[in-house]
Amino acid sequence: MSKQKTEILADNQTGIARAVALLRRGRLVAFPTETVYGLGADAGNDSAVSAIFAAKNRPQFNPLIVHVQSASRARDIARFNTQAQQLADAFWPGPLTLVVPLKPGAGISPLASAGLDTVAIRVPKHPLAQSLLSGFSHPIVAPSANPSGGVSPTTTDHVIAGLGTKIAAVMDGGACAVGLESTIIGFENGPTLLRPGGLPLEVIGQCLGQPLRLPPLANERPNAPGQLASHYAPNALIRLNANSVQPGETLLGFGPMACDLNLSATGDLSEAAANLFSHLRMLDAKNVPRIAVSPIPDHGLGHAINDRLMRAAAPRP
Ligand code: TXA
Ligand code: MG
């Protein structure tokens, strides 16, 4: 792949127009969503979609999320059963992805769905993502804008650090408010959690009036390949649920305590989610060899934080 100078586009009409023009030419443009930055391409353009896999060094079997402007655009490309429609009505735009049957002839590149007959769809809430979708007026595929297996980016600097020279542009929308990827729900055999994320499962269960089915154990067949054991991994080794620090460890704390860096000194899970990836990157930038992480409560956003930490701590391939 040839090296290119990655443009940084401002959050204004000129920046949006430039991003739209680049997408129309089949180029890759990273953009902010409320969860993490996505690496966008025209969902209907095979060579643009294929360039995403190359830029990220992502295995071709791992399908991408299709981003659309509204639930009604989503219904143009996929079939929604009652429960999928219920969740779309309640939580879109927002940090939720629904895996639903793809309509044949919907114009989505088969590379995007990795040849599956389902498609993962999301309506992002971030105003810049909304402006981009409305300016481009077609679906945009966007995985997180990081090299495959690494930590998702929550700022423009993170995108440049991972993919600079490999993509045409990044739209600068500041730090992502949620900081964790979207929650993914599938509907095969009933509503099932495929990836915990920025929308807590309790909230989703409440909306449906039934608890979600949980994913199969991590080392069984991964039904959302983001469920592969080692993922979201920084360079340092990670030890979880640390109630004390061992020699050579750096403590990533949670709640009021003495530590090297705190996810949330007040013990606020939303703040901890928003800080998680940037704090892991900060510790990596200091080349610390081992990170100990304080216990994080396993409810609400804490469930997704613990999921990402477990993957970050998992043995590397
Ligand atoms: O918050 C997010 O979801 C971000 C922003 C940019 O939207 N995107 C994101 O994309 O996290 P990515 O590619 O890093 O993760 C997408 C996940 C992967 O685990 C993939 O395997 C799963 O979605 N996925 C995509 N299509 C699927 C399908 N048809 N069935 C099951 N899982 C699917
Ligand atoms: Mg990702």
Number of E strands: 14
Provide the succession of SSEs.
Answer: EHEEHEHHEEHEHEEEHEEEHEH
Poorly predicted ranges (pLDDT <50, ≥5 residues)? 218-222
Q: Which structural class fits the helix and strand makeup?
A: alpha/beta
Content of β-strand: 15-25%
How would you describe the shape? globular
What order do the strands of the largest sheet run in, or round the barrel if closed?
Answer: 1-8-2-3-7-4-6-5-9-10
What small molecules accompany the polymer chains?
threonylcarbamoyladenylate, magnesium ion
First-residue to last-residue Cα separation: 25 Å
Oligomeric state of shown chains: single chain
Helix content: 25-40%
User: What Rg do the Cα atoms give?
Assistant: 19 Å
Q: What is the count of DSSP helices, taking H or I runs of 4+ residues?
A: 9
Map the helices and strands.
Blueprint: E1 7-9, H1 13-24, E2 29-31, E3 38-42, H2 46-56, E4 65-67, H3 71-77, H4 82-91, E5 96-101, E6 118-122, H5 127-136, E7 140-141, H6 156-163, E8 169-171, E9 183-186, E10 192-195, H7 201-208, E11 237-239, E12 249-253, E13 261-262, H8 269-285, E14 290-293, H9 301-313
Parallel strand pairs: 1-8, 2-8, 4-6, 5-9, 11-14, 12-13, 12-14
Antiparallel strand pairs: 2-3, 3-7, 4-7, 5-6, 9-10
